[in-house]
Amino acid sequence: MKVGFIGLGNVGRKLANSLLRNKFDLTVIDLDSSLTKNFVANGASTTNSPKKLAQKVDIIITCLPSPSVCSEVMESQDGVINGLSKNKIWLEMSTTDESEAKRLGKLVTNKGAIPLDGPVSGGCHRAATGNISIFVGGDRSAFEKILPVLKVMGKKILHTGKLGSASILKVITNYLASVNLVSIGEALTVAKKSGMDLKTAYEAIKISSGNSFVHETESQVILNGSYNISFTMDLVVKDMGLFDTLSKKHHIPLEVSPVVFNIFKEGQKKYGSRAWSSMIVKRLEDTCNINLRAEGFSSELTDNESEEKGYEI
Question: Are 179 and 216 in contact (CB under 8 A)?
Answer without folding.
Answer: no
